[in-house]
């Protein structure tokens, strides 16, 4: 069977990873490596497209510490409301909570803490007088002020909607970078170790190319399974753990069935 179908045909039984270790040439090995890497990217990319919110406190820790029930009641008491993407603010006001400030339609005072500044068309968060987040009111409703959990969830959605492209690209780049680094270390690192094992006279491996063959075959099923689980909702850290664990198990089964020796 021609490549690439021959690759999938030889994923099972596990001993074929060793028996077919001379089947692919270097361009085919490189293409297979890139294909498996791309499979690890698919669930993360899909999750990024489906995302509608992201916790601001993941990037700015304690950003919502000022919004307890007492402060939300004070905000509601000022007459603050949200209609058609704008904030209705009856009068300017500001008050301090520890090192933090809540400010309505005014400029935030100098402080080393957080300042939440609500203007008619937007809100922004300042930390040590530097803007760290800005959002519009399209996703906010007056009823969101009823509880801290509801309010912070609404702020997360509003912040994400206002900065969707930047946040999505940042998270996607970070996730793909971590996945690529893990895949690079696992695949090439394991191939190098297997190549060093090939120096022993107790096995039939000859050279780095054969070692790389075995690693790519051993990564096939774990990567396919992890891709499917990721599309079903498995989170990124668990996906990496599952892939690495299944890969080690597969490689162990290849060794168990062949001892890396021709019979």
UniProtKB/TrEMBL annotation:
Transmembrane segments: 23-44, 165-194, 214-234, 240-256
Annotated keywords: Membrane, Transmembrane, Transmembrane helix
UniProt xrefs under Pfam families: DUF1189
Keyword Chloroplast: no
Keyword Zinc listed: no
Protein name: DUF1189 domain-containing protein
Native source organism of the sequence: Streptococcus danieliae
